[in-house]
Amino acid sequence: MRYRIVKQIIETGSFTKAAETLNMTQSAVSHAINSFEKELGFSIFHRLKAGVQLTQEGELLKGLIETMVITEDRLYNEVHAINAVEAGTLRVGSFATASSRILPQIMKIYDERYPNITVELIDSDYEIIKEKLEDGSIDIAVLEEKYIEKDYYKLPYLYDELMVVAPNTPLFQSKEKIEIGQIPDFPFIMPDNDQDTFLKQLLKNYNVAPNIKYRFQLLSTVFAMIEVGLGITMVSETALKTYKFDVIMIPIEPKLYRNVSLVALKSQLNSPVVKAFFSIAKSLKAKG
Question: Which whole-number Å values give the CA distances from 278 to 45, 94, 229, 231, 242, in the listed order?
Fold first, then answer.
C-alpha cells in the first residue's frame, strides 16, 4: 500500500489530496511516508508550504515505485480471479480516435458487469502504446495492423475504408474518386493526433507528399476548417458519422483501409479482467 500512497502523492502533489483519493486520513498517509523514509534511510519528499515535491533520491525511485504499483495490481488481479472478477485494475492503451469510437460501448458494458473493476485508459501514439504493452504497463492495447506482432493475441475490430473529406463545392461534387497521387494538388489539413502518424506512413508508402497547410488536433476542428474551404483531409469512413458538417466524402483510388485490432500479450489472456474485456468486445463485434 505504501507504494500506492507514494504514487498518489506524486500525482496529486499533496498529502491531503492523496489521502482523499485513497480514502485515508492525512495522518495515516503521513505516518506511512515517515515510516517508509525511515526504513529507506533518506527523505523522498520535500515538505513545502505549497505542497510536496520529490527529492533527488525520490526521483531516482519514482520509476521503480510505479512498477511496484503495477506489479501489485497484477497480483491482486490474479488473486481476485477466484472471486469471479469482483475487484482489480484493467489498463487499456489506445489512440485518440479509437478511444472515442471503439472503446465507449465496451467500457459501458464492462462497468455495468464489473463495477468494482478500476479501468485506466492511457491515450498515446502507436509506438508508446506498443512499448507499454510489451513492458507490462498496460493489459490491452488498441493498435493498427502494422504494429501488431505475430505472438500477440488480437481481436480484429475495425476495418474502415479511408476517404477524402472535402468542401461541399462544385469542384469536389463532380468527383467520383480522387487518385492517391492527386492528394498534393489540394491544400491538406492534417489531424495532429494518431491520424498524423498513420497518414504520413501510408502516403509515404505511395511516395505522396501532401501539401500540409494546417494542423489541428481535434477532428471536429479539421472538419470545420474543411467546411469553410480551407483544404481536404483523409479519414476513415466512420470517423465523420458522429459529426454534422457540410462536407463531402470522396473515395480514394486505390482503395485504402485502416485495420485496427484489440491486442494483448498471450501471457495475459488468463487474467480474468482481460478475459472479461475480450468477451464483451467479441459479443459487441458479433452484433455489429
Answer: 41, 15, 42, 39, 25
Query: Ranked by mean pLDDT, which of 65-69, 141-145, 171-175 comes out on top?
Result: 171-175
Q: Name the CA radius of gyration of the chain, rounded.
A: 23
DSSP 207-256: T---EEEEEESSHHHHHHHHHTTS-BEEEEGGGGTT---SEEEEEEES--
Whole-angstrom CA distances from 245 to 47, 96, 187, 189, 203 are 52, 20, 19, 15, 25
Provide the CB-side half-sphere exposure for 221 (13 A, CA): 10
Q: Can you give the pTM of this predicted structure? A: 0.62
The torsion region of residue 13 among left (phi > 0), alpha (psi -120 to 50) and beta comes to left
The C-alpha atoms of residue 286 and residue 267 are separated, in whole angstroms, by 25
Here the cell at position 42 is 533518506
Q: By the 8 A CB rule, do 18 and 12 touch?
A: yes
The predicted-structure confidence for 51-76, as pLDDT tens digits, reads as follows 899 999 999 999 999 999 888 888 87
CA 81, CA 269: separation in Å to the nearest integer?
Answer: 12
